[in-house]
Amino acid sequence: MNKVKFFFMVLLLLSAIPTQAQNISVVVNIWPPYVDAALPDDGLAMKIVKTAFKRSGYTPEVRIEKWEKVLTGSKLGVYDVVGAIWKTQQRKGKLLYSKPYLNNNIVLVARADKQIKFNSLNDLRGLLIGVLKDYEYDPKFMKDAHILKFQANRLTQNLIAVQNGQLDAAVADKRLAMYELKHFMGDNSKHFQFLAKPLSSRQLYIAAPIENAESKTIISKFNQGLAAIKKDGTYQKILDEYIF
Length: 244
Prior knowledge:
Order of helices and strands: HEHEHEEEEHEHEHEEHH
Number of strands: 10
Helix content: 25-40%
Largest sheet: 10 strands, mixed
Structural class: alpha/beta
Number of helices: 8
CATH topology of the largest domain: D-Maltodextrin-Binding Protein, domain 2
Shape: globular
Radius of gyration: 22 Å
Number of domains: 2
């Protein structure tokens, strides 16, 4: 066998060997229906993230931790990626962000028989509004001392308080509110309304430690995978699976 034939045979053999996908650690905080080990594929956000990473040659390994550990660990480089995070000025210098892969509509949930007009923050002054700990709400809303706020750990707590008339309304991500009304409020869910105007809208990203030498590549590959699943319709199919 001459050298040319041998060379091409080696190339053919190498091309037949499957490429080993690279493992990547993804850390997230529990946040149904976006992140929850009890949901298919760990929730809507994780299904998108895992699918985009797999399309770009990574094998994501998801860990669900408390939010404080998520932030601390990601900034220290303990994990490769935070799988679901909003962009803030405080985090900008520590993390590299992907292109956004979901929109979060932050809405007000009130009793269906409650007449609340909301066109601006002025309309909420004097009302008692339920919020959640560790959420990055609209700064103007949070700083307005005339809007009274009650802080809870779980949205269900605030929804029950709204139902009982202890709160005028609760602030919630709309998908989260729809999920919790369906799973925890049962028939009582019909007694709630979403105010038409959102309080704000946020975009959801993955982020990687800025000091990690691999972070730029990881983010770039994720963006490529995300673009690919949007182009072929996979992304929309995932969204359709998580309608509540």
